[in-house]
Amino acid sequence: MSFNQNSPTTVSAGAMMTFNINKIRADFPILQTEVNGHPLVYLDNAASTQKPQVVIDSITKYYTEQNSNIHRGVHHLSELATKLYENARKTIAKFISADPKEIIYTRGATESINLVVSTYGRKFIGEGDEIIITEMEHHSNIVPWQMLCEEKGAKLRILRMNDNGEISIDNFKEMLNEKTKFVSIVHISNSLGTINPVKEMIDLTHEAGAVFLLDGAQSIQHVAVDVKALDCDFFVVSGHKLYGPTGIGFLYGKKEFLEAMPPYQGGGDMILSVNFEKTVFNEVPYKFEAGTPNIAGAVGLAEAIKYIDGIGIDKIAAYETELLDYATAVVADIPELRIIGTAANKTSVLSFVLSNVHPHDIGTFLNADGVAIRTGHHCTEPVMHKFKIPATSRASISFYNTKEEIDVFVASVKKVIKMFS
Which residue of 51, 191, 358, 382 lies most exposed, with the fewest beta carbons within 10 A? Predict the structure, then answer.
């Protein structure tokens, strides 16, 4: 079955006023790709999003016209690169309503969590203290805390979810106690699409006297995030899931926490003075940015944020919700298909299993039709254990996808079912 990438998409009146889907698709050159003789249908956005041409151009321009190391040079290129790097920090901060000094560049959400664990965790978490995470966390928000608990003699407590992939606020309240020192929760589940009630959880955490980290790797590209309104203490993001480059991301932290935390790594730029008797560390945020950073990545990430801002995150959210609702309704008519993750409040992710067909086989046969999905445990093995399955097939949606692409995906799934029946 073929798909015309330039065919108009049926969009609700409100969403159609929002943006021109054909124009948006034209902004992403990779969407013009053919796979096995079929137009690419890219539904693997939870793993990594594609990049608009403006992001690609900004990186090319940086390396061809602006490249230099930052902060310590007095020549033109160094001053230009420094300005670009710091302006990118301001762009990121504005996007989430933060102060630029509260933005730490990292390689992504995984490194951001590890930074908090290695600095705040090692300094402030002790024997007998409790850390709460949920059953739906990505491995990057499980393993570092397990390592810290083993080192410090702390206890990791798991907030379980129901069969729809939802967590209970009442259960969360019951878990909080005087021993709770830290809560680290995913905003939106990468394997289920569940949107957690994080504002209420943050408020309850603070009432208990604990600190809250919000994993925004799967949320910032789908919903508006205001860290001041949420009042989270830390917030982590991966740039490659936000239409930016790989190898770049950031950590937001309240300034008072960042100032109290020791450095993450030692080296150049994170110091004010070094001698063999004593080193004086730089101020926040530079205290956490040792060595030459990913300058081009920061430039590209800022350009991606400007692109998203130009469309409007609220408009993107409305359109993606429409696509997910359409996809969910269509696959509901397939008796052999079971959706994994049916939370009342969810976005952008359609994970499923087929009777008597392994997810890897599903992904392989869909690829023959040019359809890209993700198969496996999605770095959330405890989720698979909860639902007593080895893996799922996951179609994840972006605002550059269309209902026609959903139709191609569904038709390909039906071909797989027929083949294995």
Answer: 358
